[in-house]
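Notes taken during the Thursday session

The instructor put the following on the board and asked us to keep it in front of us for the whole hour. The protein is DUF523 domain-containing protein. We were told not to look anything up and to reason only from what is written here. First, the residues (154 in total):
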Amino acid sequence: MKILVSSCLLGENVRYDSKSSIYSIEDLQLFNKIILENKVFSICPEISGGLLTPREPAEIIKNQVLTKTNENVTKEFIKGSIDSLNLCKKENIKVALLKAKSPSCGNNKIYDGTFSGILVDGMGITAKLLIENNIKVFNEKQLKDLYDFIKNYS
Ligand code: SF4
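Then, after some discussion, the predicted structure tokens were revealed:
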């Protein structure tokens, strides 16, 4: 099955802080299995939208995306989300594995906009657009659910 994956989950240094994401051994094994058994398409919506690495952290505040120093990066985040959706449409991708808690990729929790580490229910800009377009989105803490979804889909 074709699957869209956040670039930073694949070890690419595209995050705002230039780090990639780390897994537990169990998660890494399941992650590797998913990656090897499926056709992976990787994207970092924020880089695709025109932002650089490293960059300032950003959070969603009242439907806008602002950096810690109040720069409005909403346009870049929206472009990244449209690029991600276009890739899914072009390749007929129906499922995505996106990084949790990101203002682009988070699928169920995001930071509350105060830059104080508080999580609230909500979705990142890209995750939301994909979900609205019937693409199933999982995060790296939901690998088992993703694995089951792929198994049942085919
Ligand atoms: S936008 Fe998504 S892919 Fe890019 S660094 Fe943030 S979480 Fe990772």
